[in-house]
Design goal:
CATH topology of the largest domain: Neutral Protease, domain 2
CATH class of the largest domain: Mainly Alpha
CATH superfamily of the largest domain: Neutral Protease Domain 2
Keywords: Hydrolase, Metal-binding, Metalloprotease, Protease, Zinc
Number of strands: 5
Strand order of the largest sheet: 1-2-3
CATH architecture of the largest domain: Orthogonal Bundle
Distance between the termini: 43 Å
Protein name: Aminopeptidase N
EC number: 3.4.11.2
Structural class: mainly alpha
Family: Belongs to the peptidase M1 family.
Helix content: 40-55%
GO biological process, one term: proteolysis
Strand content: 5-15%
């Protein structure tokens, strides 16, 4: 598969070398993500580091765009943007309110990558993030399945969304969870899908009633109770 890794000529030598070092992780990361998510959905891959003064990355199809770096490997960043090739670029959301499906999945896959490459497992990450925020925290007040037009890129959409994926993994078990993600990506490849579609498929694949789980994690502006039904016990 063709792989293009491009760094802006506007960058100085230090930033150019560090940025290319970051990009060169992309092929291995794409290959690793495919082991969990199924076949890479496009015929080319790669990445581009811009010389523009931006401080965010963007999941452009087959060529994620990154800001320039001067040191470090920035593995979670590359994992996040490459995960979007599946969640967001291959399967697009039906409405902006469904954006947790993209950002939550990409955030979760960062921690999945960490657990498979010598770091803490994603279940521990979920527990740590949950414990760090009490019931009164503003973090829990956003209904991430409908965050409002001012909230679509808010931290809870990414973080609580990612936590919801791991909590669902805890709730329905390893085999059903990965079957769910692979089925979701295969059935909706090249199309659009909504939160309700994901909820219905999760119930179908697992054979469980998950209305209470999704209400707690996606549709309620309060901290999910620490229960097995919510993937937290």
């Amino acid at each position: 598969m063709p792989s293009r890794l491009l760094v802006s000529q506007q960058l100085g030598p230090t930033a150019a070398r560090a940025s290319m070092r970051m990009l060169r992780q992309s092929p291995a990361i794409v290959e690793g993500l495919a082991e969990d998510l199924g076949r890479y959905p496009f015929s080319a891959a790669g990445g581009l580091v811009t010389g523009l003064p931006v401080y965010f990355a963007l999941e452009n199809q087959t060529m994620p765009t990154y800001f320039a770096v001067r040191r470090g490997r920035h593995v979670p960043l590359v994992v996040h943007e490459q995960a979007h090739q599946w969640f967001g670029d291959s399967v697009a959301i039906e409405r902006w309110r469904d954006i947790w499906l993209n950002e939550g999945a990409a955030t979760f896959m960062e921690h999945r990558w960490t657990e498979t490459h010598g770091g803490p497992d994603a279940a521990q990450w979920l527990q740590d993030e949950y414990d760090a925020r009490g019931p009164g925290s503003r973090f829990w007040q956003m209904r991430i399945a409908d965050p409002g037009h001012d909230g679509i890129f808010a931290t809870p959409v990414y973080l609580r969304g990612g936590m919801a994926f791991q909590a669902l993994r805890n709730r329905i078990g390893e085999d059903d969870f990965w079957l769910l993600l692979q089925t979701w990506l295969r059935e909706h490849e090249g199309g659009n899908a909504a939160t309700e579609d994901f909820e219905a498929l999760a119930a179908e694949v697992s054979g469980e009633s998950l209305d209470g789980f999704f209400d707690a994690w996606l549709h309620t502006g309060e901290r999910p109770a620490r229960t097995a039904d919510n993937g937290l016990a």
